[in-house]
Amino acid sequence: MSDNRGVVYLGQGHVEVRPIGYPKMVDPSGRPIGHGVILKVVTTNICGSDQHMVRGRTTAEVGLVLGHEITGEVIEIGRDVETLKIGDLVSVPFNVACGRCTTCKEQHTGVCLNVNPSRAGGAYGYVDMGGWIGGQSEYVMVPYADFNLLKFPDKDKAMEKIRDLTCLSDILPTGYHGAVTAGVKPGSTVYIAGAGPVGMAAAASARLLGAAVTIVGDMNPERLAHARAVGFETVDLSLDASLGEQIAAILGTPEVDCAVDCVGFEARGHGSHSHEEAPATVLNSLMEVTRVAGAIGIPGLYVTDDPGAVDPAAKRGSLSIRFGLGWAKSHSFHTGQTPVMKYNRNLMQAILWDRLPIAQIVNVSVISLDEAPNGYHQFDGGAPRKFVIDPHGTLKSA
């Protein structure tokens, strides 16, 4: 078996489906490993983080095979794998984690110390994340498989809910992490910045955690309409009314208990400035509308190098944040990549027991591998969908 195809980054705004090598049991340096498995990819999703690279807003190199949201079937097992077998259906956390270092043992799998020689933390198909080959492909290798993979307990039942379970690799735990670190609890009032898939996953998570009201803000009318259709309050950031004024119109007060940034560094200004890029806008606005002693979860991506930034400071990841405001209000901030394994097993149970219809909430839309470039184009245009690639037609045939 030598054939494999994947979605390859070919420069700013350009991805193609191309032949790529069939996965080998080796790490990015070429060293043979025995702890990996090879998966036949069942679903693999297009993520907003992928879009940052495709837009040319990172230092990603041409030729990168994309894709860090992977669900698959085990078809080959390394000699050291003990808890998995051929045919198992598994969810792959987007974090590559060894399970052996200090941070992994503390459940901080987003910053594993052993999978990336350049910095803490690894991921599949992503710039500066260790060189692990991405999974928007037909087949992919997953290292440290016994530790990383979440096996679905009943394969047939899992396939019945695969459109929901595909969200476990990233966006659902990421949205949940944002809500948890923002302190959402029963009765909370919550503001979510961004109505994309991660924002909608955060809103769904706030609901699951018992929020009294969840408000989603965006400037895309289609995404706002979808958010309202699945039961959330919304604010339109393209209007001249301030965020606080719009929140007050809903709650009777301009502040919320908890806030979550699901936009990140490609943020735009609000109101009459909505056509202008302003990377600190979301963080500053969240400090304004979060009550004293409240918390702000920040799963939205911020990068250390942004070659397409609007000013020299932002190119180095330096933003004009009103940190004094956050300090004065005694805010807590939580940043960084989500440690998926901290949450994915419980979220799987919530899906399997019909507590969390995440596919409906993020509007999962299944496409073929060959349709992936068009999926990137539509997603970049703001389509209110979560594009899920079905490389082998498994979902279609099911």
UniProtKB/TrEMBL annotation:
Residue intervals passing through the bilayer: none
Cofactor(s) of this protein: Zn(2+)
CDD domains per the UniProt record, alphabetical: PFDH_like
Highest taxon of source: Bacteria
Alcohol dehydrogenase-like C-terminal domain: residues covered: 197-264
GO molecular function: oxidoreductase activity; zinc ion binding
Alphabetically ordered keywords of this record: Metal-binding, NAD, Oxidoreductase, Zinc
Domain Alcohol dehydrogenase-like N-terminal as annotated: residue spans: 36-153
Pfam short name (any one): ADH_zinc_N
Family to which the UniProt record says this protein belongs: Belongs to the zinc-containing alcohol dehydrogenase family.
Protein name (record): Glutathione-independent formaldehyde dehydrogenase
Organism: Pseudogulbenkiania subflava DSM 22618
